[in-house]
User: What shape does this take?
Amino acid sequence: MSQPSFDLELDEPRDDAGLPTFSVRELAEAINGALRRSFSDGVWVRGEIQGWNVRGPHAYFRLAEETEDGKASLNIQFFAPAQVKLKPLLMKHRLRLADGLKVRIFGHLDYFAPSGQLGLKMSGIDPRFTLGELAMQRDEVVRRLVAAGHYDRNKQLVIAATPLRVGVVASSSSAAWADFVHELERSGFAFVLRLVDVRVQGERAVAEVSAALRTLGRASDLDVVVLIRGGGSRTELATFDHETIATAIATSPIPVLTGLGHEIDRSVADEVAHSALKTPTACAAALAERVLAFRECCEQAWSSIGHRARRSVALAEGNVGDVARSIRHQVVASVERADARLVQRARGVRVGANQVVQRADAQLRSASGALSRVPARLEPELRHLTAVAERLRLLDPANTLARGYSIARTANGRAVLDAAVLQVGDAIVTTFAKGTATTRVEETTP
Assistant: This one.
């Protein structure tokens, strides 16, 4: 059956009879054929993973690249068989595919007709490229920290001898936090913990961890801050290579310890921390060991003090014993010499006493004779003495005092006869007929 021709004289050019017309499916098959011929051995492509999405056993994402001319992206299908094949390689290098990771992958191009999109069926990956990118990013962060003077800043801080007040940045639901607490409890020391619960992986991890470090760094009642998480892939632990976290650690006014659960690699956070431990448990053990070392040092000091005190007391007891024996010997010798002198003097006293008694007896007999003649001669003298006694009685100071007079003496007992000898503030002892009084000079009048 022939189709009539219509001459519509349209502006658009008509189909060239020499070019074939494809159906959509035919064109899709032609495109795939051309792709297989041009890229028969597959193709390597590098870029950054974006939009990572797991649907069932398969994973889908975009491989993107930012350039000066704009953004380019390619759809990637990572089907289950390829995942099973590449899992040992990824585990060997501790890589976990996720958003933001730069990768170099291998696969075959495929035009998917139902959606009209070109994609790459991933079947291989170059882990060295990803590790190299991570290392380059890490080295660049370290370079900037060194240039800013932050690299060794936290290491210069001094950890308290007994770091019992600990600020912790960790996920409260993680095994790392449980292991850390268990190790501290097992030590038996009275640690006081202040936990800031954060995400330690994922998009929000960097912001939450750095904010927690800054918050604990402003606390005035903490001895040390600890950043911990369990083990994981290198890509997961790459969170702790971020410059924001490293800067928060380096500029913290409190020493920061890290226990990030990886024994092979050191993250940038480990590099700038005061001390980097292999695991959260090791981090807790280090704190407990420091407290234990301080306690043992104190016990050794007390033991040394006790030993020196006992030695000093023993030495003093020996010296006291020597002095006591010396004193005893000297006392005995002195008593013996005094006893000898006493015996000698007693003998001399007996001889001298006899002589004195004999002389006194002779004098007494002579005086007795003279006394018999005294009464007649004493009568005038007695009358004279009586008169003198009466005069003395009248002149006795006690009688003068009884009439209301008093005697003023200086502090050394000298009688004050002239006010000029006194100075203001001198003490005067005034004697009355009954009693004395002590006064001080306030003013003198010539």
About this structure: DSSP finds eleven helices and 13 strands in the chain. Residues 1-10 have pLDDT under 50 and may be disordered. The longest helix spans residues 280-371.
